Amino acid sequence: MKPELIAIAAIFVAFAMAEALRTSLLRKPGQRGKDVAVEAIGTLILVLITQPLALLGGGLLAAWIAPESQGALATWPILAQIALLLVFDDMTQYWLHRLSHTWPWLYRLHRAHHDAQYMSVRIVYRNNIFYYMIMPGLWFSGALIYLGLGWVYAGYLVVKMTVIIGAHSDVRWDGPLYRIPWLSPIMWVVERTISTPATHSAHHGRHVEDGVTNYKGNFGNLLFFWDVLFGTAKITRRVPEEFGVENIPESSAGEQLAWPLIRDKQTAQPVP
Predict the structure, then answer these.
(1) Which DSSP string corresponds to 2-19?
(2) CA–CA distance, 202 with 216 (Å, rounded to integer)
(3) Fewer CB under 10 Å: which end of the chain, C or N?
(4) What does residue 243 show for φ and ψ, rounded to 5 degrees?
(5) Closest CA to 47 of 136, 143, 152, 157
(6) How many CB atoms lie under 10 A from the CB of residue 228?
(7) What is the residue-wise DSSP string for 88-132?
């Protein structure tokens, strides 16, 4: 197994153990029988099939378009390589995420991620099995790896997944830091730069009237800066009392995982 994958697995396990000890990893408030199936199947398919295929596809497509350019960006400064990844991976993921809360057919592919009525490392990869295949950031990353960013991408991915896993966990790393007065200026910068448990849990809130939930914003994955830049940020340093989606029909595990191949017998679901 690649070193970066071992590192990500170790980070995931560390947060999972923290939840197991402090908030109960396997028995979350509001958990339903279908949740375990959606999370387990969605995660396995992404890790074993979807993500590798998308990265491979991006690399093959780049090789077909520019067969003489393999490794062409390998000598670029590391900061320039990181900037490319932030724009072509993280920013494009921001825009896909934002559109997924605007276009009904994209929301069908993303709804599974929000159907959980809790925050947890368990929902990090909880999505329709086709969602990640259309994620431009994975295809662009595959192309950038072909162009010579392989080692930089490995380190970038570890950092990105650490932020994302931490932002989804209900064991909040930011809460104790907010309570330290002299850290307030530093946290002001941090919460406007990367996704934190407070900013990302607001995106998963169930009730928009609670003053915390920002279902139509806080879309950032690694960088919360995209929300600040594009006007979708809401920062309260608080966490919603309830999570999930409201005012739309229930969706079965099969539909959440495999729409449009599996469709429930109900009217089309609006985007909340």
Answers:
(1) -HHHHHHHHHHHHHHHHH
(2) 10
(3) N
(4) -125, 160
(5) 157
(6) 15
(7) IIIIHHHHHHHHHTTSHHHHHHHHHHHH-SS--GGGTT-S-TTTG
DSSP 37: H
DSSP 251: -
- 103 forms bridges with which residues in the sheet? none
Spatial CA neighbour of 24 closest among 220, 215, 171: 171
Global confidence as pTM: 0.94
What length is written for the chain? 272
State the sign of the Cα–Cα–Cα–Cα dihedral 237, 216, 124, 58.
negative
Mean pLDDT by 10 residues, the chain (272 residues): 91 97 92 94 94 97 96 97 98 98 94 95 96 97 98 98 98 95 96 98 94 95 98 96 88 93 72 67
H-assigned helices in the chain:
3-22, 33-45, 51-65, 78-85, 92-100, 104-115, 136-144, 150-168, 174-178, 184-190, 197-203, 225-230, 253-258
Q: What tokens appear for 228 in the block?
A: 């600040």
DSSP-assigned beta bridge partners for residue 205:
243
Q: How far is CA 46 from CA 41, 43, 78, 127, 181, in A?
A: 9, 5, 28, 9, 41
Distance CA 63, CA 169 (A): 38
Over residues 60-71, the pLDDT tens digits come to 999 999 999 999
Q: How far is the first Cα of the chain from the last one, in angstroms, to the nearest whole number?
A: 40
**Which of 171, 203, 172, 174 has its CA nearest to residue 189?**
174
